Amino acid sequence: MKPHVHPHYRPVVFHDISADVSWLTRSTIATDETTVWEDGHEYPLAKVEISSASHPFYTGTLRIVDSAGRVDRYLRRYGRPGRGS
Asked: CB of 33 within 8 A of CB of 44?
């Protein structure tokens, strides 16, 4: 690899602030904060607002809006589009 071309790839702790979950992984993200991980070493800290631990799709709390009822109601009220009614 060429020097000074690639960003610094290092271990970083990501912390989901909405679910209060942290994990250690590798990243090139630039952070100003640090934290001490479970192994006793200090790592850069990146705070995120949403992750798979708090996202409704992954937690099973996703609510799907039923738009089919709305479409049927529209068609009953105004007729089928393009039929000249």
From this structure: yes
